[in-house]
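Folded chain entry —
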Amino acid sequence: MLHVQNRELVVPGQLIAEGGYRVYEGAFREGKQVYASVVGLADLHGQDIRIIPLQGRYIPKRGDVVIGVVVDSHYSGWILDMNSPYTGNLFVSDLLQRKVDLVREDINQYLSMGDVVVAKVKDVDERMRVLLEAGEPGMGRVEGGKLVKISPTKVPRVIGRKGSMLNTLQDVGECRLRVGQNGQIMIWGRNPRMINAVVEALLMIEREAHTSGLTDRVHLMLEKMKSEGGE
């Protein structure tokens, strides 16, 4: 039995449902009762219950794909700002996926201060020390593009159900996006006007993530920007 409606705003401790529901992020179970653990929107689909948070910083989890910026280096790697209270440590061997002779090789040839990097969270220990890796295809140093930062809690809204919002941003916006779970997003495109339009769309999603019909409004906004650019 559900006690709230889909997309309803809920607060920590509020009763969401009773029964054999599957409980995911933002909710917890006590016996047969399911409660919200964060301020957010109830996301109810079939037997699945999750709460989409409206606020909060990014907390790294193993397996997350993030986009970070190099802010420091050390003898065997780099420190990345991940739009989080915690920084990420990327060793050169986890970037290149091979052993590196640190005496003979200058690791500065691979990454420099300010470089943007797509990486995966390899491990997070009990002291919240974050280890990154970037050897998979499509990871590593980012070439070109524009970096946009939004609240990490709004990332699910940027992607949308079955990728609907992300497809709209890319298809109508004529750009390619890479979305990090930490709220940092890279945008590539040939038309600077449409890149800026996609940035505005992302900020709109961040502001209005709690509202319905958002994908349609983003679609109309991008179409308008596109048509105005063609006049």
